Amino acid sequence: MTNDPDTMPIADYLAQGGKLTSPENVPPRYRGELLRLMSSFVDSELAGSAGFAAAINWAPGIKERIAASRITLEKTDHAERVLDLMEGFGTDKARYEQAHDWAARGPRDTLVDARRHGGDMRLSVFHYPLTGWTDAVVMNVLMGSATLHAVGELARCSYQPLAEVLRDILPRERRHMELGLEGLERIVVTGRGEAAASVAYWMPRVAETFGPAQSDRFDRLKALGLRHDDNETLRRAWRAEAEALLTPLGLN
Amino acid sequence: MPRFHPLEVTDIRKDTRDAVVITLRPRDADARAFAFTQGQYLTFRRDFDGEELRRSYSICAGLDEGCLRVGIKRVEGGAFSTWANEALKSGDILDAMPPQGRFFTAIQPEKAKTYLGFAGGSGITPVLSIVKTVLAREPKANFTLVCANRQTSSIMFREELEDLKNLYLGRLSIVHILESEGQEIDLFTGRIDAEKMRMLFRMWIDAESVDTAFICGPEPMMLIIAESLRQHGLSDDQIKFELFASSQPGRAKKRAVSQQAASSANSCEVSVTLDGTTRSFRMPKDGTAVLDAAIQNNMDAPYSCKAGVCSTCRAKVLEGEVEMEVNHALEDYEVRAGYVLSCQCIPLSDKLVLSYDE
């Protein structure tokens, strides 16, 4: 870092795929959008982890208990890694974690507005409660595969420190989804009906996490190099993958 | 939150006509906080005519040199760099934050890694720290360094680079590309462009063997090099960038703000600028935060925690007076410069001008 005079406007640099490397070289509007993206990730991981914690005690066996514990632990760790980046922008890490009740959930059957709801920035899907082990596993598989698409998209973003952290996180998020899939394979042997009901419940709610098909914010984020593929493209890719995962289990 | 600590200037020497190299020493109690990793930078602060400027400069020392050293090139009109080049002297105290930055890869002494470095102008500073550290700590590693400069006399650390080449004969090769100085081989004259990159890969660099490439220089140069590296098969996680410029204006200047006195009217005329568009509306002075009023007026203002903790909603007050109920995120110097957390910001004056774009 040297603070030489700007050799090209930062907007042009970003439009051509340039990367920003530290809080010191992030312009104000980029800063706002970047922090919003990071908050949404942190809040979703914290809320996801807090909601999944109950699944540890629903687990039907030791293997499942370990898997659920691991997912609960690692999602909180992922939240911390991104929160550490936010700290570089001035975020008070300790207070941030205490600002909201991450385990809080709304009623199961009231539709949650897909836009921001309540005090934190978690994705709307994390406002719905889990009802038991099968429901938790189904949600984990569907939201796990959605996370791979959403985080994979952000791992290409123009803020290099975030892209690097997300690239490190991706293989572990993939493992969480796979652990869920292994659990689901065992569940369908005796409980296909219950699993199918959970799939029907979670599919539209997970689909909504990708955001509206037409989005001004996407265009703005794309100009900043913070996004690349639009919401609908990601949603379609996820849906195809989810169907490929569920069909062999007779859940589609 | 990172804090500033005093560093003593123990040595300052001219490196080129317009660059100095400064050696710094932390107090004994702060030594641990200033243990750095190769490629990191220090952020300094200094008051210029009542306004605090913060500037970040990369550390140029290797991990095994046992000292903290930065290179500062004087920038035309740059308050901090001019002061550092012309007025700073041995024995002075500089306030700095502990080292930050992620422009490095983990040291793996057992691996035979191949590195590629591109440094434009003073972009050599962090790359020099990396070169010295990896060659010393990874005995099987080799490094190809491409330096782009205007002319021979403007090459920073020229002698030190020569010495390193001799010290690590066969492991360090250095290519100098000079913009305005003819050399025998065309490749070495001019600016780095796509054609030069193709020639480099044809004649000097085996792209397939490269583990990691480091790039620090002006933005257009970084774009050209990164694009070429990708075309030659390097993936994003093999390319490490360190951006040159800071988003702060270079010149110290007085803030022109007319502070209106608080008045007794029970509403406030607010104009808010976001993405270059300014919208005006009237909001009640009943404890409503400016952010909430902006959102009610259909502005897509950035925010997250709404608790004064995360700083996503930071904006700058250009005119008028506000009160912040809670602030756990902005530092004193930001508040003095007019920044507020708009989620915590209650208008006091009858008129308020606020911008998310500054």
UniProtKB/TrEMBL annotation, chain A:
InterPro entries: Aromatic_CoA_ox/epox, Ferritin-like, Ferritin-like_SF, PaaA_PaaC
GO cellular component, one term: cytosol
GO biological process, one term: phenylacetate catabolic process
Gene3D superfamilies: 1.20.1260.10
Pfam families: PaaA_PaaC
Name by which UniProt lists this protein: Phenylacetic acid catabolic
Originating organism: Paracoccus alkanivorans
Organism classification: Bacteria, Pseudomonadati, Pseudomonadota, Alphaproteobacteria, Rhodobacterales
Automatic annotation (TrEMBL), chain B:
Record-annotated 2Fe-2S ferredoxin-type domain positions: 268-358
SUPFAM superfamilies: 2Fe-2S ferredoxin-like (SSF54292), Ferredoxin reductase-like, C-terminal NADP-linked domain (SSF52343), Riboflavin synthase domain-like (SSF63380)
Keywords, ordered alphabetically: 2Fe-2S, FAD, Flavoprotein, Iron, Iron-sulfur, Metal-binding, Oxidoreductase
FAD-binding FR-type domain boundaries: 2-106
Pfam families attached to this UniProt entry: FAD_binding_6 (PF00970), Fer2 (PF00111), NAD_binding_1 (PF00175)
Cited CDD domains: fer2, PA_degradation_oxidoreductase_like
InterPro entries assigned: 2Fe-2S_ferredoxin-like_sf, 2Fe-2S_ferredoxin-type, 2Fe2S_fd_BS, Beta-grasp_dom_sf, Cbr1-like_FAD-bd_dom, FAD-bd_FR_type, FNR_nucleotide-bd, MRET
A GO biological-process term: phenylacetate catabolic process
Keyword Lipoprotein recorded: no
Essential cofactor(s): FAD
Keyword Oxidoreductase: yes
GO MF entries: 2 iron, 2 sulfur cluster binding; flavin adenine dinucleotide binding; metal ion binding; oxidoreductase activity
Protein name: Phenylacetate-CoA oxygenase/reductase subunit PaaK
